[in-house]
Automatic annotation (TrEMBL):
Entries under PANTHER family matching the protein: THIOL:DISULFIDE INTERCHANGE PROTEIN DSBD
Topology of the protein relative to the lipid bilayer: Multi-pass membrane protein
Source species: Aliarcobacter cryaerophilus
Claim: Signal is one of the keywords in the record: yes
Taxonomic superkingdom: Bacteria
Any one Gene Ontology BP term: cell redox homeostasis
Protein name as catalogued: Thiol:disulfide interchange protein
CDD domains, sorted: DsbDgamma
Length: 594
């Protein structure tokens, strides 16, 4: 235990040493300004301390009315060799003569794009970035440059400025981030432990319960399980889970990565689903999963060799569980990541995430101690219980696949699992087993009927047959899909009503809660008729997805951003994580007039 905590402290401290007390934001590292002169458009690039640009990543293009490359005909400062690359350490001033634009394309309007990518000497590299500027010419007047832009462009510039302006009122997430800066360490840690206790009862943490339970049942096959032993195994699981989540959180906070998206792509989820399927078949007795023989040999040389093998296996499962079936993004998590990203303080941010994870693990510790206390002595009956938990592991695998496969296919998989479980339980002659198997079989049949009818919610398989016509069906909320910042700005500019932007992803469990509960509530639907509703799907975590999330400080879905009728962002209304209909309406009442 001490070694694990020591390793965590050294890990987080190494981050603080490596990146210092301040990690430059892209806007601080690269300040790009377009300046319109009498005969040219100048692009000035001011670099932050120890920041450099890759020479081969620089691009200057006309993008409208059609794409034309310009960089080869422009003069740039001479680059230098550094660490095997050709780079620019000095500020750049790139001059684009208007005559050059006219010689390339005969037009009265040009959109100029500057693309670049750079790194810090400390080893932190930034994603590729771009800036754009529109240049107008007056037709048929000796190519004299018109420096004023249209009213529409002015409004867009004002809108772009308003998207990032600070306001006195802060959102829940920003308040949590501020508390990390202003409160004492002990208060911060105690607060985040409380946050963890609340997060422990979210749907994203529930799958860890059967995983831990199956581990304890498996361990009980060959030896008696006491409350102390059960608690110890749970503690190992929770510490490994907390350690993994802290590492992922610190990295996400420093590099600005989407905490969920990197581990929620189809390939990763399908791979881990097969791991749980393999665990299930191991519990069915087809084979036994063991550590590599070389590792077993080393561990077995100690007096507690067999026990340590089991502990290592539990730790691995805890580590993997945190990465794949860990909690959804919620205000406390987002607040900690925002704090780490703004200050570079990986130590306090990492400690906050660690104690929050421990708080999330409290119910798991209670389950472990309770299972150990009430678990009967090993015997033949344990084989049957182990196989039942094998069925549970198959359920976890389907739960993972549900994020990336067609919902109808998921319904069929759930129905097959239920029918198979019912048939398996019929083997037992005990009246309770017979009753349970009958109930499961009936629900499995209902699930198949629901799948055939087109239902997609396993908890409401007969929704197509039983649901009443309500306001939610008559006036279902219609969200306009946008893909990038430019489309967002256009949509806000054209809207005559307040605007809501919903960050959403197919693998986001809490997003589905918002869709199925909050956004189908009659009162919510009625209230949102007075809003323009926008949705951005960040499932693929593309460059556009990353850019729009970074602009608004979103660490992952679900999140909701609001603008008022004057196209000003209402930061105090910002929502991160799931809110039930009552909580959602309270936020609207507080920030918007009826």
């Amino acid at each position: 235990m001490k070694k694990l905590l020591l390793f965590l402290m050294l890990f987080t401290y190494s981050f603080s040493v490596e990146f210092g007390n301040k990690v430059l934001e892209p806007e601080e590292a690269f300040k790009v300004v377009f300046i319109k002169n009498e005969n040219s458009l100048n692009i000035k690039v001011e670099l932050g301390k120890d920041i450099y640009l890759y020479d081969d990543k620089l691009q200057v293009n006309i993008t409208k009315p059609k794409k034309v490359e310009l960089l080869k005909e422009l003069e740039l400062a001479k680059p230098v060799a550094y660490d095997g690359f050709i780079v620019h350490f000095d500020d750049l001033n790139i001059e684009i003569p208007y005559n050059l634009l006219k010689s390339k394309l005969d037009s009265n309007k040009y959109e100029i794009e500057f693309k670049f990518q750079g790194c810090s000497k400390a080893g932190l590299c930034y994603a590729p970035m771009s800036e754009k500027q529109v240049v107008f010419f007056e037709a048929d007047v000796n190519e004299e440059v018109i420096t004023q832009v249209t009213e529409d462009i002015k409004q867009k510039d004002e809108l772009t400025s308003s998207l990032t302006q600070d306001t006195e009122a802060l959102s829940e997430t920003d308040n949590i981030a501020a508390s990390l800066k202003d409160s004492s360490t002990l208060i911060v840690l105690a607060t985040f432990f409380g946050f963890g206790l609340l997060l422990a009862f979210t749907p994203c943490v529930f799958p860890m319960i059967p995983i831990l339970s199956s581990i304890i049942v498996k361990a009980s096959q060959n030896e008696s399980m006491s409350a102390k032993k059960g608690f110890f195994l749970s503690l190992v699981y929770v510490l490994a889970m907390s350690f993994a989540y802290t590492i992922a959180g610190v990295i996400a906070g420093i590099f600005g990565a989407n905490l969920q998206a990197s581990l929620q792509n189809p390939y990763v989820l399908i791979s881990f689903a097969f791991i749980f399927i393999a665990l299930a078949f191991s519990m069915f007795g087809y084979f036994e999963i063991r550590l590599p023989s070389s590792i077993q040999t080393r561990i077995s040389k100690t007096t507690e060799g067999k026990e340590r093998q089991g502990v290592l296996g539990v730790a691995i499962m805890g580590f993997l569980s945190a990465l794949i079936v860990g909690p959804c993004v919620a205000p406390p998590l987002a607040g900690a990541l925002v704090y780490i990203g703004q200050t570079g303080d990986a130590v306090l941010g990492g400690m906050a995430l660690f104690v929050m994870s421990l708080g999330m693990g409290v119910p798991l510790l209670l389950i472990g101690a309770g299972a150990g206390k009430f678990m009967p002595k090993p015997g033949g009956w344990m084989q049957s219980v182990t196989k039942i938990f094998g069925l549970v592991m198959l359920g976890v695998a389907i739960w993972l696949l549900d994020r990336v496969i067609n919902p109808t296919i998921s319904m069929y998989l759930w129905s097959f699992l239920l029918l198979g479980s019912a048939i398996y339980l019929r083997v037992y002659t005990h009246i309770i087993s017979q009753l349970i198997s009958t109930i499961i079989f009936i629900f499995g049949v209902i699930m198949i009927v629901g799948a055939v009818s087109g239902a997609t919610n396993p908890l409401k398989p007969l929704d197509k047959f039983t649901s009443k016509v309500s306001l939610a069906q008559q006036d279902e909320l219609k969200f306009i899909k946008i893909q990038n910042i430019a489309q967002l700005e256009d949509a806000i500019l054209k809207s005559s009503k307040p605007v809501i932007l919903d960050f959403w992803a197919t693998w986001c469990v809490s997003c589905k809660e918002l869709d199925e509960i909050t956004f189908k509530n009659d009162e919510v639907i009625k209230r949102l008729q007075n809003f323009t509703l926008l949705k951005v799907d960040v499932t693929q975590n593309s460059e556009d997805d990353k850019a729009i999330q970074k602009k608004f400080g979103i660490v992952g879905p679900p999140a909701l951003i609001f603008w008022d009728e004057n196209k000003q962002e209402v930061k105090s209304a910002k929502i991160v994580g799931y809110k039930n209909p009552k909580e959602f309406l309270e936020i609207l009442d507080k920030n918007f007039k009826n």
